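$ ./design --mode recover --in tokens.txt
reading tokens...
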């Protein structure tokens, strides 16, 4: 957002008919600020507790929070059984659409049976409460069933995105010390089966401790089964009983670990727990999407391997008894109208996706959505990166028919649920602004010293009060938890790592990461992780990686590499080899958009690489201040390397 765009910001008040029937009205902000903890306690009452809590929040040892202390519940019971008990067993929980066009419908009653069977299967494998179970799956119903089965027996799931490499999977399995892996032969992507099981086999050569691998048959690709370790899901799960009595767990019982990139090469295992997490995902899903359980068809078009999938494909929607859509594949398969076809087919009323997808649709052209009946839509959502006003307006017009409010939701893996977002029946929207903190959430923009900045300023985003769905720690590393999030401004202020501006109305505009984390198509990738991968290649001596702005993916990965002395620069061949190496090492999403082979990197006198300058080069901008460089001619040499078309 530039100053000039903000000057001409258009405003979109809530549609009156939507506002009149909205789940929440403007008074909710006042209600929450009157007594924040009482407000969250009321939200927790959306859930069914086996034992009520004694205390809403224990913040006596910051930054280690305990929410709903003493309360007991079962997360899976709350997501499934209680709806069946209330007579909604025949309601569709998921309309699942496979990429090849095969479909499955799962009602709440069927989901309950499947989850119970899978829970019994895990018990048979010896999984106990607190054990970690890795899930490496395509987007199929069994993925959700596996997650809920873990939750049901108190095992901690650790879903690894199916696009990640064997190495990435192995390091996560090792870090979480998982003993069971649930996977599939493969899934469908871009019109072809894409194998998963071989990656698991490879990963398991690099980590110890996994004793069982459960394999769902999806693509019917040939897979190797290791005797005594691997078992087919249909052999193990199908013969189990549908009866399983859920055990009640402490509100702070761990629910899942989700790895995310930080500023170092080692991903962080973000730990979420039960009662507070479910409370906030349920509340936010209900309030932000104005969810009407009886009539809405909700679609989070994201992968369940990311936090967005955890909170808004699985836990939030199920806690609220929503009917959701799950789609296995990519938007262009078999044609570029696939998503719109799905919206039309299921009558999707709420669509939640990422700006990078919207920009891709923009590139493909508005005549594609125009061919489909999208009139069922009533609310649109955006997540993952700042949405530029141009993409916002396109989304509003060509998908939302100028009828649907767009909720631009700012949050993180660490926050677990929405934090800064409009409310569709309340907020006057400004394209590009995520609006205000959710009721019950306290956010501020501060300067480098942590002083709160007045409206009209730009600074760093912080959260000043704990919230129910906050991460509880980094798995196995409390010190890193404190250092990363709670040390810059003291132990009670959460440093989000994002820059933000607060405007004269008090609305927040998110400006992207202020650390060395890139955001590529809404996925967080650490510059250090890609650098480590590059220097692990025998040809590379040193590497510096930056995120350069990209019209489609938000940021693109640009790497600058110095080759080892004995390596000849074979030009394009080598570059392709290196790109491929990173894709294989970390995953295709980390494949650099561009790699430039250079003689030297710009460094400060203390030896720190000046990424700021590399970003200037990568974005084809005039160079910023070079006075702290040891040798300013380095930059001329690097700039000369750029293709002239840049
Ligand atoms: C960015 C995804 C601007 C931000 C849920 C954050 C956003 C990081 C928005 C978290 C938004 C997410 N506007 N930026 N609406 N949503 N971000 O952990 O930089 O994958 O810190 O969680 O994405 O990414 P994560």
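writing sequence...
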């Amino acid at each position: 957002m530039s100053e000039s765009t903000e000057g001409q910001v258009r405003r979109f008040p809530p549609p009156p008919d939507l506002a009149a029937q909205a789940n929440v009205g403007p008074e909710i902000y006042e209600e929450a600020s009157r007594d924040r903890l009482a407000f969250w306690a009321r939200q927790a009452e959306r859930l069914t507790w086996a034992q009520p809590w004694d205390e809403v929040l224990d913040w006596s040892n910051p930054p280690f929070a305990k929410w709903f202390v003493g309360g007991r519940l079962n997360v899976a019971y709350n997501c499934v059984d209680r709806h069946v008990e209330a007579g909604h067993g025949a309601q569709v929980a998921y309309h699942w659409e496979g990429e090849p066009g095969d479909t499955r419908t799962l009602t709440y009653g069927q989901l309950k049976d499947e989850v119970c069977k899978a829970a019994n299967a895990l018990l048979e494998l010896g999984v106990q409460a607190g054990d970690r179970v890795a899930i490496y799956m395509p987007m199929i119903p069994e993925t959700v069933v596996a997650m809920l089965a873990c939750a049901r027996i108190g095992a901690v799931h650790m879903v690894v995105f199916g696009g990640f490499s064997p190495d990435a999977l192995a390091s996560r399995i090792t870090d979480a010390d998982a003993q069971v892996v649930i996977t599939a032969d493969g899934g469908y992507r871009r019109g072809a089966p894409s194998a998963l099981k071989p990656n698991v086999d490879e990963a398991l050569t690099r980590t110890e401790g996994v004793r069982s691998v459960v394999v769902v048959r999806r693509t019917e690709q040939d897979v190797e089964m290791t005797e005594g370790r691997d078992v087919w899901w249909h052999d193990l799960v199908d013969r189990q009983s549908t009866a399983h009595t859920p055990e009640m767990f402490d509100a702070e019982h761990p629910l899942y670990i989700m790895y995310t990139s930080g500023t170092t090469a080692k991903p962080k295992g973000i730990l979420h727990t039960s009662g507070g997490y479910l409370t906030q995902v349920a509340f936010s899903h209900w309030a932000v999407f104005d969810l009407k359980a009886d009539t809405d068809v909700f679609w989070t078009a994201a992968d369940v391997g990311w936090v967005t999938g955890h909170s808004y494909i699985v836990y939030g929607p199920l806690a609220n008894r929503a009917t959701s859509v799950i789609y296995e594949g990519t938007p262009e398969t078999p044609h570029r109208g696939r998503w719109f076809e799905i919206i039309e087919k299921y009558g999707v009323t709420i669509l939640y996706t990422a700006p990078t997808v919207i920009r891709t649709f923009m590139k493909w052209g508005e005549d594609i959505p125009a061919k489909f009946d999208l009139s069922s839509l009533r609310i649109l959502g955006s997540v993952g990166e700042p949405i530029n006003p141009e993409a916002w307006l396109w989304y509003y017009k060509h998908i939302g028919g100028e009828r649907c409010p767009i909720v631009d939701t700012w949050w993180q893996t660490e926050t677990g649920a929405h934090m800064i977002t409009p409310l569709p029946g309340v907020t006057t929207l400004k394209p590009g602004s995520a609006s205000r903190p959710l009721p019950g959430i306290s956010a501020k923009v501060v300067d480098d010293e942590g002083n709160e900045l007045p409206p009209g300023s730009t600074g760093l985003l912080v959260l000043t009060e704990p919230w129910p769905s906050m991460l509880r720690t980094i798995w196995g590393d409390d010190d890193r938890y404190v250092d990363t999030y709670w040390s810059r401004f003291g132990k009670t202020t959460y440093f989000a790592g994002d820059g933000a501006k607060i405007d004269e109305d008090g609305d927040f505009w998110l400006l992207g990461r202020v650390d060395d984390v890139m955001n590529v198509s809404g996925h967080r990738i650490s510059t250090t992780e890609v650098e480590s991968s590059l220097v692990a290649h025998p040809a590379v001596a040193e590497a510096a990686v930056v995120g350069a702005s990209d019209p489609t993916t938000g940021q693109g990965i640009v790497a600058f590499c110095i080759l080892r002395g004995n390596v000849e620069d074979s030009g394009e061949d080598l570059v392709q080899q290196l790109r491929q190496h990173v894709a294989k090492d970390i995953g295709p999403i980390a494949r650099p958009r561009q790699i430039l082979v250079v003689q030297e990197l710009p460094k400060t006198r203390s030896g720190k690489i000046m990424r700021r300058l590399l970003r200037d080069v990568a974005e084809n901008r005039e160079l910023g201040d070079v006075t702290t460089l040891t040798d300013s001619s380095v930059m001329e040499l690097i700039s000369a390397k750029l293709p002239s078309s840049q």
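exit 0
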